[in-house]
Specification:
GO terms for molecular function: ATP binding; glutamate 5-kinase activity. This is Glutamate 5-kinase. It is an enzyme of class 2 (transferase). This protein has helices at 3-6, 33-48, 60-67, 72-77, 79-103, 116-120, 122-138, 160-171, 207-210, 226-238, 253-258, 277-290, and strands spanning 13-18, 52-57, 109-114, 141-146, 175-180, 185-186, 198-199, 201-202, 242-247, 265-267. By secondary structure, it is of the alpha/beta class. The strands form 2 sheets. An 8-stranded mixed β-sheet has the order 3-4-2-1-5-9-10-8, sandwiched between helices. A two-stranded antiparallel sheet has the order 6-7. α2 links the parallel β1 (13-18) and β2.
Amino acid sequence: MDTRRNLLKKKRRVVIKIGSSSLQHTETGDMDYIRLEVLVRELCNLKNQGKDVVLVSSGAIAQGKKAVHLTPEQLQEHPIAVKQACAAVGQARLMMTYQKIFAEYNQVTAQILMTRQTISNDINRINAQNTFEELFRMGVIPIVNENDTVATHEIEIGDNDTLSAIVASMIGADLLILLSDIDGLYTDDPRANPDAEFIETVEHLDESFLRMGKSTTGSGVGTGGMSTKLTAATIATASGADMVIANSKDVRIIHRIIDGENYGTLFLAEKQDAFDLPDFVENLHSCRERG
């Protein structure tokens, strides 16, 4: 077994991100309750091992769209306002579902909704950090999403890959797991290029790896492609956390990764003392605004 993978067993504070496409049936867009229950069981088991656990969960907008029977034409008429309204409907439904399933394992959860101002404003950031720490002391699992309902731009933080890395950095997590619909990092998009090679470990995240990121996603549901996952890796590794990109097809991959098994792409932490999270987020947002 790879020694570096084996060290994942010792991680004490873990952030796990799961995307919209991983939470629903492709054919209907309805919630995949079996996968949700397995996810909850995995998280509760980590918590029972004495680890601090955070779930960053997409799915609010998708569930809202489904609940109000939104057509593509309606979405195009007022895209930002409609997305915000769908988020308001869907976030409540999503949390209700999570709380019901977590309660079956006697696990208390909390909802934390974040915006860019949560990070860029010093007081807001410190308050958020204090809230996380208190929830951990209480034995609660925080469930985090971007507050799409009040976002003033179509994209604030923009995707939950980046958001999960921001959370990991804020709370001093030592492991971030991104669950998606792809096995990990490849030299090219494996859906388009059958000769693309899988990369098991990234020891140093340099420009050659960052160029592999492309703003594409195979699901048509979420907002995060490989480029957002590499942005997340930049934040996480610079903040001192290892990161793994893995396929959510079987959610039990979570405990296999933490047991040191060779799943997904492992990005090794390279803590940079000069890394400033608020500055990075503001610069990232400015770049996205410029397009």
